[in-house]
Amino acid sequence: MYLNEINDGITDATGFIQSMLDRRENGRVIIPAGRYRITAPLVVHSDTYIEADSNAVLFMCGDTPKDSSSFLLTTDAKTKTVNVRIRGGIWDGNNQGKYNTKGDIFRLDGYSGAVLNFFDVENLELYDMVISNSVTYNIRMARINNFRIENISFVSDKPAFNQDGLHFNGNCRNGVVRNIRALSKGQTNDDLIALNADDEMKRVENVGMERGDIENLLIENIYAENCHTLVRLLSVDHSIRNVMLRNVYGGYRGYAVNADAARYCRTPLFDDKNEPSGVGNIENVVIDNITCYSESLGPAVIVESLCNNFQIKNFRYLSDSGYAAEIKNLTGTTVKTESSEYAVTEKSDKVQIKKLRELTVDKKAK
Residue 274: CB partners within 8 Å, gap ≥ 6? Predict the structure, then answer.
């Protein structure tokens, strides 16, 4: 069998593509244009360079039952993977498929809904890819070190819960993320960029992920026309530190920047009554040059995680309604804008700022 015999979108291409990944002649796997029907997870090994034509569509079969290990492409969860590079292709989760649906979030043997899955990877590179029609996360990652992700686009006509773009869980370090775009209106229907150092692991979409620090990242050139949230910073017990985000532009329905520690999720990570001093550690995180707009009446930026030097610079809020920022559920914190300074002493203190250009949230020196 040859590639031109299996790229008709009807023939099961899984075995043929997997055999190419297993052989990886000279470390390379080349996928020409065509439609490839995938019925089981493709597993990428160490020292592999996948080069897919820009018109190569690999799509998740909709007629095959799914479980928590079902992805369009994944690394091997049982072993560390090193040196993976993927360029090109349209990677389609086919969220219209009969079996490509997410069930109850607490049924841990159900379908996670993620399209691409990377866990325990050293040296990961993703370039020039379109991720389409995800059920939940477009790309999810945990325990990855030394990575570069550039020129990634997200497309889906069907909105769905937990439809994050780039979803980072714990122990993601030393990475560059650049040129990330949601191309269809309404996408991504959750967080375009999610830095979730903490998350509820007893939810099906997080099976196989882990909590841990996220640190040493540069993220730049982020765009969405009408996503739910542009950037999420989820820190409760673990740190998000030494992160620079710059050149963020987009419309949102929830928040431009969400650092609420998942207080309002269906599965909160703690009880506020048991945390009188507050939770979280967002440390040395800077968001520079962010332009956002929304018809939402809520704040563009919400901060409810303790911070050590969290800064927003060159902030442009193009909406007339709502607040530019709201800061609450913190203790011993100083909030500064270009023109004002506020003391947040008790958890009951709340700071609401209508307009701002510069914002710093910082714990007071002891």
Answer: none
